[in-house]
Design a protein that fits this description.
The chain has 16 helices and no strands.
Length: 314
Amino acid sequence: MLAFLARHSALFLFIAALIGFAFPHLSLALFPYLPYVLFALMLFTLLGINQSLLVRALGQWRVWLYAFVHAVVLTIITCTIAWGLGASDNMLLAISGICATGSLFATPAIIRSLEMDALIAMAYTIASTLLMPIVLFINLSLLSGEAFSLDLHSYIARLVIFIFGPMGMAALFHAWIKPEKLKRIHGKLAQFTIVLVFSFPLGLVGPIGAMWQKDSGYALELLAISVALCMLFFAIVYCIYRRYGEEASMIAAVTAVNRNVLLTYTVAGAALGPVFLPLIGAIQLPIYLQPLLVRWGVRLKRASHNATTDNSLK
């Protein structure tokens, strides 16, 4: 059963988001437990990564260049467009929070399902996650105005727990446990990782589902903004990385859309304003629809390429 879920994870993740949207009370009941699930998922993911290869990948300048594009460049472009279109202060604050957010830790699995380099996607994910606290703090400082009231002690404590905690524990496990034994342990844990991943779209989409029942017009507006954000992230990063080849641009673009918004909310909370929570609920739908669309597009392009090759050989 778990193998079946893993094989069709992209489809089931989107279905989980739809279920959370349709049954917001179920989603909202799950929401308080998601930070603990996030911690476990980050730890389990890092346990399965070859540390030496990952450190080597993190030493590449292109990884940190990506993190800069992911957080800083997209913040500047997206917030400028939103401001130009007349977005409210609260909407700008929420959008800036999403722009600062690092990538989902499930991104390497999505990249692997596309038969592309999952290691570089993991490096992108960690680099963007490490850069997130700095960019998020700057964004909050600039866009909150006089209402800025971030509890720095709580902010730093949550950063230590939810970002450096899993990374530090994973490093210790890799140092203390023999690779063969750790691989066996991770192999057993990995079977349940996919179940943990399903809880994110299911548990995060509740606010937009509840909003839909109260004010469908505003909910549609948030959904439209979320789709626009994801399309903008994908298009900008894809174009920037197009010079490095098709695979490199696709990896960067997919990683840019996948946003670990729960981590951002867990770290900054109410400082992100009242629009952030319903907006991150809305953005779950395009985020988890993306793998299905990308996989379909990649397969279609490969089929077209193979057909062209076959015709040229005849």
